[in-house]
Amino acid sequence: MRKDPSRPNDKDKDAAPLSLGDRCVLCVGGLTGARNHYRAEIETRSGRFIHHDGGREDNLHRLAPMLAAADIVICASGNISHNAYHLVKSTCKKLGKPCVLVKGTGIASFLDGLGSLAQTGSQAAGLSARGDSLLRRGR
């Protein structure tokens, strides 16, 4: 079967990353050692990066104002406290913030979460999801 050159493949999709248009992206959880990689991926897409570790060392009382300040939330749900997980979900829903929950904690899972924003079509273009959360499996 010949490949149609007019149809982009998966590699072509990755070549043009989603532009975050100076939106503030809160990353909750994830690997401490990967934090600089998360930051670089957000900034490459013209976003502003903030991070909360999900209650491991950072105080949970800091999470609520960070959620309020963020435009988008990406949460490594397998690497945060139960209280932080429920706070992220309920606050994003109440405030109408796009929230992507990823099970994995690595960079590949994080990139999948960012990619899921692009896959939501017109909602991702305006990033106007109503606090909906997408759960992506980790690698």
From TrEMBL:
Give the family this protein belongs to, as stated in its UniProt record: Belongs to the UPF0751 family.
Pfam families with a match to the protein in the record = DUF2325
Tell me the lineage of the source organism: Bacteria, Pseudomonadati, Pseudomonadota, Betaproteobacteria, Burkholderiales
InterPro entries xrefs:
UCP020408
Which named protein is this?
Answer: DUF2325 domain-containing protein
